[in-house]
Amino acid sequence: MFGDPVFNEMRWRRCKLKDISVEKLAYGSGASAIDFSGLRYIRITDIDECGNLKPDKKSPNHYEEKYLLNTGDILFARSGATVGKTFLYSKEKYGPALFAGYLIRLIPNLSLVNPVFVYHFTNTKFYKDFIAKVQNTVAQPNINAKQYSELDFILPPLALQNEFADFVAQVDKSQFACEIVIKLWRNSLKSSII
Q: Which keywords, in A-to-Z order, does the entry hold (predicted)?
């Protein structure tokens, strides 16, 4: 739909990740995690391999407003074995949340990009190659906010990005419906065996 970002056959506008952000990419809070008390504290370890949050919830021991997430914010893991992993935040899906210091936040400029498109761009081979090339491997792999800011990015028309996001939403709904049917089928099968 968008072509290869390397060759850019579609001749989309090229830019850097920093060019699609409302403000500079920023590091998260240094608060400690405590038992959950209503405000979720998202840490690198809370994001699974599929880019979803694990069910275990923690809260920060204190917080500042500047670390509160808004729907559409994208988090990037900056250190360790998970460097490069990303997460697309939705307040409706995950409730109010704050992000931790080993994550970097991108606040997408909604007049330029659809956050769903940006998130899925971070699941491409192009992005994975960028991570492999840029990460510093001293004691443990890491990428800082400035390095993420310099990621080359293609910028298709917003209408096309929105069309893509609508398609992804339909696929997600279909996948969810299939998962429910499979669970019902398994439960039915278990009941018939017993």
A: DNA-binding, Restriction system
Half-sphere exposure of 103 (CA within 13 A, CB side): 28
CA–CA separation, 171 and 104 (whole Å): 28
Rounded distance between C-alpha atoms, residue 71 and residue 25, angstroms: 16
Among 163, 136, 161, smallest CA distance to 147 is for: 136
Beta strands 97-99 and 26-27 are unpaired
Distance CA 83, CA 132 (A): 9
Give the separation between CA 83 and CA 142, rounded to whole angstroms: 6
Structure-token pair, residue 131: 């991570």
State the CB neighbour count (10 A cutoff) for residue 97: 23
Q: Kindly give the pairing relationship between strand 13-16 and strand 152-155.
A: antiparallel
- Please identify, in words, the CATH class of the domain defined by 13-156: alpha beta
The rounded distance, in Å, linking the Cα atoms of 85 and 79 is 10
Domain range list for the chain = 13-156, 157-194
Burial class from Cβ neighbours inside 10 Å (0-12, 13-18, 19+) for residue 89 reads: buried
Tell me: the pLDDT tens digits for 24-59? Answer: 999 999 999 999 999 999 999 999 988 999 999 999
